[in-house]
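Lab notebook page, bench 4
Experiment: in silico fold of construct C2
Operator: M.H.
Input chain length: 604 residues
Purpose: comparison with the prior construct
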Amino acid sequence: MRAAALYGILGPLSLSLAMTGLLATPATGRPLATPPATPTAPARLLTSAAGPPAATALAAAAPAWSAAPASAVPVSPALASPGLATPRGGAAEARGVTAAARKAAARGIAFGSCPRSEELSSDVRCGTVSVPLDYARPHGKHIRLTVSRVRASGPEARRQGALVYNPGGPGASSMTFPAYAAEGAFRKTAAAYDFVGYAPRGVGRSAPVSCQRPADFAETPTSSPQHPSAEFKRALVARARAYARGCARRTGAVLRHITTLNNARDLDVLRAALGEKRLTFVGASYGTYYGAVYATLFPRHVRRMVFDSVVNPGPWQIWYRNNLDQSLAFERRWADWRRWTARHHAVYHLGTTPARVLAAYRKATHRLARKPAGGHVGTGELQDAFVRVGYNDAYWDAAARALAAYLRGDSRPLIALAASESGDAKAAENGNAVYTAVECNDAPWPRAWASWDRDNTALARRAPFETWDNVAMNLPCAYWPLEHDTPMDVTARPGLPPVLLLAAERDAATPYAGAKELWRRLPGASLVTERKSGTHGLWGGPNDCVNRKVDTYLLTGRTPGRTAYCAPRAAPEPRPAPVPESGKQPALPGAPGSPEATGVPGMP
């Protein structure tokens, strides 16, 4: 699944869906971590790429799929759902977690100065925690996960321990999460809790994985047709095969162990290393899924959990169906942006109707296909830039201004909008590699290209905006060289306390049906819904109703009942000033240096 900027994509802390490039982050518009990758590189094809014919090599044996509940998106009968077998890992792994957690509790974490590469302030301290690569062999090879922490700011008597955050991805790090303790929306919580971030296995300095040379991953311009030709599809398949082989070749034996189940197990070892008997955790986007898996595996180790922008945990959804549903949801959110832009025609001059705004976007697409802007922004980069409007409405004004300026002959704002948020090709490639490894290892995928082609060709007739980009992001899983897990049947088990779910009705990255599915599976859960909104990642954003409910829950343990609703956030307004002559985009609401930075952060 494409996830967005922690960015949430991965909310603005960002992803890939995992998926494309924006992740969910506690809300300031400032990345919590280096973005894991836009849907560009293995997904998109360089405009010069010409893949070899692949028709004869497209059909591997399909996995057994069993009947599953109806999805919002019809899929081929063969793709119903993986059987609900026991997930990989039983007694041996359970004993391994117990042994590793016991050892971690005894050792603790030796926090000290953070490496300069983390770019953290001096009050944030860093350390590492050792976890088994393979929990079935807890005394075998270990890897180290990097951890960051800032101490609670309130009096000792009111402190409640550590609050661990994960922004999603897969492939995102929350090492910069402690920096949010000083932001207005988080101060009450930060007075009571140590804010703890970490890089999950495979991410950043935590035993990083790789599938491709970073320079190749970051190569531009790329092409992103909404209705690809047969030739483009053959090249897509060839690149997906090559990328899957590259993952195995560049990462080796570690690759098999980059999974959701191991992320959940690592979280329990981290809990023990922090000296916590029970875990207090906030997960956004993909973080909600492995948080839910953790709650299923370790219900008595849970103290409080907030799941922000909820991935559908149904075993039949992981991950192929979730990606289909996500593509459909992005189409709806893309239409929201076009309607908003049309209402502000007097500002942007892109058209008085959504259809005319779409025509303007297609005009830019055709122009970029002929001549990439600045030599680097092709149709793939345009798509990467505009998919952000589906993640967060704080991007709406910047996107409309950039498109308008480009069509008037000034490409600088579009080039700036399309630029990598981190500028770090190595980090982007690493994030994408982790995303791919987790999703491919977690669950069975269709192995026959004919199934992918049939399902997504049909879907693209209804939802062309994101469908084939999501295919490109995930197609390596069709050719994955390793054995996959079986998704866990997430459920409430004895000892699990009430948890809090946050969801926006029009969220594209994690459609609202996912929150309702997890709510159904956890009878003690409380679901807080932001009406008529679609920003991915709610905690810390401009909706005071949502933030009050999270504060109350984290500080007292009280939930607002089985369901609660918050009025929608205010619609974005066009900025009064045009994009600067430099082409540099103005700071997003809530980002350091913006007018709102001293108040409530403006985006997740």
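Observations: The chain is about 35% helix and 10% strand. The CA atoms of residues 162 and 194 lie 5 Å apart.
Next step: discuss at group meeting.
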